[in-house]
Amino acid sequence: MRFVIAVMRHETNTFSPLPTVLEDFGRGMSGGPSTGAEAVRAMAGTNNPIAAFLDIARARGAEAVVPIAANASPSGKVTDDAFEAIAGRILAAIGDGCDAALLDLHGAMVTESFDDGEGELLRRIRELAPGLPVAVALDFHTNLTAAMMDNADVITGYRTYPHVDMYETGERAGRTLMRMLDGEVRPVMAWKSLPMLTHMLRQTPSTQPMKDIMDRAIAAEAGGEVLNASLFGGFPLADIPHVGLSAVVVSDGDAHAAEDLRDELLRTAWTRRADFVFPLEPMADSIARAAAMTEGPVVLADHGDNTGAGGNQDVMAVLAEVMRQDLPDVAAGPFWDPEAVARMHAAGVGAELTLSIGGRTDMPALGLKGEPLQVTGRVKTLSDGRFTVTGPMMTGMELGIGRTAVLETAHVEILVSERRMEPFDLGIFTHAGIDPRSKRYILIKSRQHFRAGFEPIAKEIVLVAGPGVCSSDYDLFPFRNLRRPIYPLDEDLQAM
Ligand SMILES: [Zn+2]
C-alpha cells in the first residue's frame, strides 16, 4: 500500500500587508518547505497531524510518500506561485499512484486567485484521482466550505485553542480512513457553517461559551454515536464569503445521525452568539491595570498585532505605552525587524546604541502607518534564533526565528528577530538569554497560543488591545466580501 501524506498549512489574514511566498512555508526556518525524507525527519514524532499519519502508515506497513511539508506563519494572501508549487507537488505524488491521501491542512488559506486554497487543492485531487480515499485534519480556525466537504471522505479538526491536540486530530482522521479502507465503515459527512464572526478571544473550547459544545462533540465521538465530530471557531480576519463558525460530523452510513448532531451543536452555538463577542478595554487602561500588579510574571498579551493571526509583529504602540507608564523589569518581544538585528549584530555584545525598532510596515487596509520606536540601550545578547519546543504545542519541533538580538534598557529587555513567529513556547526567550520566569512583566504579541507555554508561569495575564491587522475591534475592518447578514455586524438575523 502507498499513502501520500502532506502538509499545506496557512491561515491567511487578507488585511495583512505581507504577501506569503514559498520561502515562508518553512515555519520559522529559512529555505521554504521541506520534502521527502527531510520532511519526515522534521515532522515525525512531533505534535502535528502529519506525525500521526506517518505512524498510521508505519503500523500498516504502508509506504509513506511525503511530497511536501509546507507550513507558514499567518500573513497575507498566498501568492499563486507558492500555492501552485505546493499543490503541484502533492498532485504529482498522487498522480504517480496511491491508495489513500492523508492531508494535514489548515482550512483558512486564501491565495491570490482562490478564496479557498484547501477547497481548490482537494477539488484538483478528486479530479485527478476520483475515488481515492482522502482524509483531512484541519485547524480549529477553519472556515469550512462546500469544496472541502465535497472532495474529502473524512474531515476532523483540532479541539483545542491553543492547539495542543494536533497529533490526536491526525490520528482521529487517519483511524476513520483506515476503517474505511478495511471496509469496516462507510463514512458520510454532514456540515454547516453559521454566519457568525466570532471573536478569537472568545473561541477557546477550554472555557464557555464553546466548552460544553465541544465537550458534546467529543462525547459523541468517544461514545461511538458517530465516527468523528468537529467544531470550528472560524477565522474572522479574512474578507471572504465563507467565514463562519461551523461543524462537521462523520457518521457510519447514517446521514440523519450526522445531521442531527451537527444541528444540535450549531443550535447551541447560535443561541450563545452574544457570548462570542469580546468586550474591548482601551490599551492604556490595560497597561495601567497591569502597573498596579505587584507580583510577576504578569503576561501582557498584545492581541492586535499577533503574528499567529497575521500581524506584522512590528507594531510598537504597546511597548511605547509600557515605557511611558514606566513599568519595571520587562521582557518584551520578539519584535520583527531584520535591520535592527543587523545593526546590533554589527555592533556586538556590550555596545551602547540608539536604535529605531519596528514600525517598518504600513497597514493600508486599516489606514495605519508603521511607527518605529526610538530606544537607547546596550546589546545584551546575540543568537542564531534556533530552539527546540519543550512546551505542549508543536512539542519537539526545532524552530528558528532568524538571528535575534536583545537590547537592554533601564527597565526593558527588548528581543528583536529577523523572522516572525507567535510566541507559544518559553524557548523563544530563553534561547536569547532571557528567563521569562524571573521577570515582573512579559510583553508578547499573541492572542491565545501563548497560553501553551506562558500560562503555567504567569501570575496574571492582561490582554492588551494594541493596534494592528488582527485587532479585536471588527469595526476597524473594511469587510466587503463577507456573506451578509452576519452576526455581530448585523444584529437581527435568524440563522437557525
Ligand atoms: Zn488556529
TrEMBL record:
Family per record: Belongs to the peptidase M81 family.
Domain Microcystin LR degradation protein MlrC N-terminal: 2-290
Sorted UniProt keywords: Hydrolase, Metal-binding, Metalloprotease, Protease
Cofactor note: Binds 1 zinc ion per subunit.
Pfam families: DUF1485, MlrC_C
Cross-referenced InterPro entries: MlrC, MlrC_C, MlrC_N
The protein's name: Microcystinase C
Function text: Involved in peptidolytic degradation of cyclic heptapeptide hepatotoxin microcystin (MC).
Co-factor requirement: Zn(2+)
Residue ranges occupied by any Microcystin LR degradation protein MlrC C-terminal domain in the UniProt entry: 300-481
